[in-house]
Amino acid sequence: MSLPVVAIIGRPNVGKSTLVNRIAGEQEAIVFDQPGITRDRTYRPAYWCDREFQIVDTGGLVFDDDTEFLPLIREQVLLALAEAKVAIFVVDGQQGLTGGDETIAQWLREKAVPTVLAVNKCESVEKGLFQAADFWVLGLGEPWPVSSIHGNGTGDMLDQVIAHLPPMDEEEAPPETSVAIIGRPNVGKSSLLNAFLGEDRAIVSPISGTTRDAIDSLVQRNDTHYRLIDTAGIRKKRSVDYGPEFFGINRAFKAIRRSGVVLLVIDAVDGMTEQDQKLAGRIEEDGRACVVVVNKWDAVEKDTYTMVEYEKVLRSKLYFLEWAPFIFVSAVTGQRVEKILDMVDEAAEQHQRRVTTSVVNEVIEDAIAWRSPPSTRQGRQGRIYYGTQVTTKPPTFTLFVNDPKLFKDSYRRYIERQFRESLGFRGTPLRFFWRGKRHREMDRASANRATKA
């Protein structure tokens, strides 16, 4: 990453994610009154005074327990600390000094990373000074009383943090292609992210629901920068209780909306499910470009025709994503993983592609020549006067006609097929607005009023 990293470290439930939200200025990290909510390293952009940096949230650090995810969380914390310019060690001022705090402090003193000690949950300024005084014994310098919820003391604490950071780079950040990795639980989304990055960026476990938050990672290939967003596995709504999973799924849906391209990951062993179809519908509805990634292909017994037949079955069930390319990969072995970003590049380019009005009308004329617009029993026939592209992401076209009601769904689908056959647009949905004569007259009247004004 081009920006310096500030790592947030501490025991479970001391308010690390709340402090991340306070420093980053947005409610992105999941906050819930339950230990162990954060597991992976999650990065957020932040700045203070004349310094810009990436703040990385980490899971609660516990050294004397090796159950469930705790060893993997320790590994993620160590990786975060290895790339950090400075660490913020968060402790709980209301609970006071604990043995866990002393163990972490001893561990941090053995590292070469500067550490700022933040005593959280000091809601009262005067009382906070007394709460913070107990933590001088940790030997990490002055303990700074802060309140992640109200913001008390965070400015003074950040003044100490940025003293260890270089000045902001005046160069503009390069443009990014945002790529959301979406799918059901346990289809291999985190393994795919790790395969892209060549490191264990996200915790991978056979336990369903391991990833809870949306994890942003930056990667550069040649001159293109990508923001890869790993997300929580999305189960059926009726199976989800209010809590960490509920918030994680909401983050996943937000990740779709803030991405340009979505990787819909499907388990090759389980095949297509109803939930996969619903996710595909959500992607199309949000107008995002898409690449369908069939993962775990190494676990499928196959012959020469298996891939062709398998894709045919999948496409029959994902008919509303017929425009999306398919790729069969194995995140574990790395098979064809490097080709995914090539398909992402193509989908992103088509998603923001614009064609001239003359080309649009040539396609419409050819389509009408092959198949005339439908007629009613009374002999009234639909007419398309002209069309134009009005926007991108996704490419959107307005067709001006005599009466939109004369054009049924079958003919509208035919027009879209003709656009794709003539112009491509592989990997992106298309939008069409059919406007009648009344709308044209209103547009002309508005244009005349604007001219007179």
Terminal residue distance: 51 Å
Query: What order do the strands of the largest sheet run in, or round the barrel if closed?
Result: 2-3-1-4-5-6
Count of structural domains: 3
- Can you say what the CATH homologous superfamily of the largest domain is? P-loop containing nucleotide triphosphate hydrolases
Overall shape: it is: elongated
Name of the CATH architecture of the largest domain: 3-Layer(aba) Sandwich
Low-confidence regions? 29-39, 201-213, 240-247
What do we call the CATH topology of the largest domain? Rossmann fold
Structural class: alpha/beta
The residue-averaged pLDDT reads 82
Largest β sheet strand count, sense and barrel closure: 6 strands, mixed
Strand portion, in percent? 15-25%
CATH class of the largest domain: Alpha Beta
Query: Helical percent range?
Result: 25-40%
Strand/helix succession: EHEEHEHEHEHEHEEHEHEHEHHEEHEH
